[in-house]
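Figure 3 (text version): C-alpha cells given as input.
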C-alpha cells in the first residue's frame, strides 16, 4: 500500500540573485565614478568673484606660502619646472596646467613660474582661485 506523502514547503529564500545584482551595481558605480584626489599640500588660494570649478584632468603646479614648488605631490626646484612639465606634457598632450599659488607669495615668483610653464610648452594654463 502506498501512502501519499506531504509536499514540503521550502521556507528559505534564494538570495544568490540579489548578491549578484548588488555586486554588479557596485562594479558599475566604481567604474563610472571619478575619484578626486586632493593634494595634501595646503595652499591658501586667492579669492575671485568670477572663478569656475575645474572639471577636466589637469597637471597641478603648486606654489606654497614659503616658495616651495610641487608638480602634483613631487617637490621640484625652479630650474626643474620646465623639464618636468615637458615630460608630463609629453605623457598627457593637450592637458592644461593649473597653477595653485598661495595668495601671499610675491608676484615676481608667480611670474617666474608662469614663464617656466610657457617655456615647457603648455598650450593652456590657468591660475586657480577660490570663488567668493
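Below: residues designed for each position.
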Amino acid at each position: 500500500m502506498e501512502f501519499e506523502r506531504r509536499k514540503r514547503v521550502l521556507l528559505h529564500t534564494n538570495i544568490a540573485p540579489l548578491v549578484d545584482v548588488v555586486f554588479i551595481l557596485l562594479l558599475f558605480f566604481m567604474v563610472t565614478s571619478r575619484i578626486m584626489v586632493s593634494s595634501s599640500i595646503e595652499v591658501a588660494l586667492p579669492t575671485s568673484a568670477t572663478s569656475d570649478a575645474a572639471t577636466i584632468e589637469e597637471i597641478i603646479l603648486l606654489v606654497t606660502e614659503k616658495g616651495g614648488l610641487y608638480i602634483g605631490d613631487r617637490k621640484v626646484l625652479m630650474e626643474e619646472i620646465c623639464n618636468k612639465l615637458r615630460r608630463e606634457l609629453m605623457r598627457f598632450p593637450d592637458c592644461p596646467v593649473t597653477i595653485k599659488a598661495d595668495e601671499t607669495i610675491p608676484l615676481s615668483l608667480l611670474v617666474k613660474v608662469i614663464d617656466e610653464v610657457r617655456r615647457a610648452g603648455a598650450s593652456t594654463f590657468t591660475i586657480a582661485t577660490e570663488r567668493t
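The CA atoms of residues 30 and 111 lie 41 Å apart.
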